[in-house]
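SAMPLE LOG
Freezer: B-3
Tube label: C17
Construct: single chain, 151 aa
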Amino acid sequence: MLTKNKGIDLYGVVCIQINGVDVSTLIDWDDVDLMWTALLTMVSEYVDDGKYSETQLFTNPLEWSIKKIQSSPKDLVLFRVFRKSALFDLRTDLPVSKETRVSCNEIDFLNAVVIAGEKYIVFRDEDTRSHNLIEAKRLLKDLKSEMKNIY
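STRUCTURE (predicted):
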């Protein structure tokens, strides 16, 4: 699903599925390096804040947010995707809705982001095309360190 564009950008999608619900799908395609940097920035800011974070760092009109839901025995996060695309104003037969919200265990979510982020960075490091993931690598390293201190 990933294609090369003039050797610079890598277009695709960060597919996010939570509890069997497709939250971010192929309809949310973008520059995958941008998407990963945005996701890691948002999650890192969430860990710092402890309550909420959002991002809109995409080429396409897409917003992601995560919000803590205090719960017993473990806290949850509510992951929200909002698509601003005009496609949603004109069509009702799209495979996803304009807005999707799904909750899950907070620690499981954070761990899944770190594991998937590491896999993506390894994949991109092996790729010979021009790309720059310095910021994503820094964010991932900081996020792992912060999570060790908190959890």
